[in-house]
Amino acid sequence: MSEFNNNVLRTLVQEFGFREGKWDDFYFHPQDKRKMKPILTKRAVIAIKEKREFRIDMVTVQEAAGRILVSGWMVDDKTKRKVWTTGEANPGGRSVEGSHPVAMAEKRWKARAVLALECGEGSGIYSEEEFNDEYLKEARASRPPEPPQEARQEPIPPKPAGEWDDALRARKDAWNTACATISEVTGEDRAKFEAPLFLHCTKFQGNSGWVLPKRDGKAVATMDDLFFCAKDPASYGKWCGSAYGKARDVIQLLTSGEEAVLEIPDPADMKAPAEVALVLRPTA
Known about the structure:
alpha+beta, 2 domains, three-stranded mixed β-sheet, three-stranded antiparallel β-sheet, 10 helices, 45% helix, globular
């Protein structure tokens, strides 16, 4: 991780183990030469909210000056602190902001409230929800190439067989629950989306292109095989723990009223950009 000059971010890194990188927890825009104003990814903001158990209270939705506003309180019951924030979106905007302005305004409000409670005023820390697609594309593209995923994994100590069985069973149950939720929200049959969802959730990007999980040198194509190969500590750190996390991101998009685009690598050219395999849409 490179050096940065934001003391609040240092505290978050120490407590949450946040990593710098566009696919990890935070990064900086190339114009932020002093590295004072980090951009937190959605995953990092969610991690803060879940650990602190922040509670949402008194949410309102209104229209003002042609924009959709979502406002409300977010409460930290442990410290008895609360903040009132507002998130806005332009119904006439492009992409997600224009097609789902209420959901976009809600996401901005939640992110601002989490950071206001956790980091305080003037922290210089922002979430990805604050910025448009063009800004984020520039910020992400400017980051140096990500190191191979293998190099970023910390070794995981071996576990007794019983603990592995429990861990694998829990992950498999979580995957089944995620698929059931997606099926309920979209009205789609699990058989239609599970295969592309699996590839979408297990892909990683390294310097040499996309990487998919393998078992005995062959690409893993089922959850059973994925959880079997998870007994290898290196594989467990890379795929088993994150597959459900990525599925949860898909669920969050759908339950927020947004589309979820499932992207998978091209088996014939793993260095090519990921292709759109399926677009999931929530039912009305």
